Amino acid sequence: MNRTELCQKVREATRQVMVVGEDKLLATGTGVTIDSQGTVLTAGHVLCDDGEFRSERVLVTTDEGLFPYKPVLSGDLAFEMDLKGLSGSLEIDLNILTPLVQLSDASYLPLSGSVSEVGEEMIMAGYSDEIVFQVHPDQFVDLDAFEGEDPRTRLEKEIFSERFKVEMLKRGMVGNVQKLYLSNVDLERAGIDDSISIEGAYYGIDTHLTEGGSGGPVVNKNGEVIGVVIRRSKTESGNRWVPLLPADTGVVLSHHLASWALEYMGLHREPDWKRSSRPGGGGGTIRPEDVESMPLGQTVVTKNDNRAKVEVTKTGPGETTVVYRDPTSGEVVLLAQWIPRDSGLVVDPNTINPSFWTLIVDGEETPVSKFEEVANSTSTGAAIDGDDRTIKL
């Protein structure tokens, strides 16, 4: 594959990662999809601060939209070193994210099977802040209109603006390799009662990405991920007041120091989605008491026939995300939030496929394009019927 084809594959698999607080974005970064189920590899510090997760809410861009994800590894993952003349913890600034909804046929890049060598050419990508276009979204959309007392509207404004970022790709070379051979590593801090042996590396790359690029993929000429961007290197300045200055090189961490978890924890096995039928029965409408009994992150398929496929994922205490799919193509045709004890669903209007749904307002058919206008004028949630493919307000 030539460089243009390689860059296109890298772009398709590169993801934005957003850590969401109650009323604002807490952190943003980059990740890369590494399998067809949408599993994402990223830098640990995008999700964590001093070993603690910034928030339980993580959103990741996908081929089908913005979806909730959860981390697989602990926030303070480290390997204890107990070698002659060397002791302490080797912190692993990597994590793996899995989607809280079923994804399939996601664009992804395979992982490299070996540690790279000095001199290998590579491509890196990330949503860094170094690209500022003359044409910006606030020239077309009044983002200040999102301001208000409701903190959710402020958060929506930040997410909306963030989605206008574009990925930056750079070409470079592996300039240094510090190989790590770890034997009988205790996985206790990963929550696993076992030990494994790992071969990985720190890479020095002769280029870098700025803030926002952390977690971005670094890919060899074969289109395989060798690792992700961790940080920009620094160099001594000779000034005691500002002793270190950013260098024009970057530090990359080999995926091997985290990707052991994929096979070890069974993440690359094809998920048995049929097993995720509604608790207490198959098909039909899920009940509030069913949601209460679901563990956080579990997905149940409440409907799967020739009319629609419906997946309900528990994303918080008493909160769920509901995904409606076209049963033929698997395409997401609607995304909503459901709090079981409340009435109706809160629908994301940007995800409604007008060729799939019919909007009914007060018993009369209405253009789907009017949904947001009508929804803003009513206090009740939407009633969605997958059999009739109707949204009623």
Q: Within the largest sheet, what's the order of strands?
A: 1-2-3-10-7-6
Please name the CATH topology of the largest domain.
Answer: Thrombin, subunit H
Helix content: 10-25%
Number of strands: 25
Q: How large a portion of the residues is in β-strands, by DSSP E? A: 35-45%
Short summary:
The chain has 393 residues and is mainly beta. 12% of the residues lie in helices and 41% in strands.
Give a structural overview:
By secondary structure, the protein is mainly beta. The chain folds into 2 domains: 3-131 and 166-264, Thrombin, subunit H, CATH 2.40.10; 273-392, no CATH class. Helices cover 12% and strands 41% of the residues. It is built from 6 helices and 25 strands. The protein has a 6-stranded antiparallel barrel with strand order 1-2-3-10-7-6. Strand 6 and strand 7 (65-71) form a beta hairpin. It is globular and about 70 Å long. The relative contact order is 0.13. Mean pLDDT is 76; it is low at 268-285.
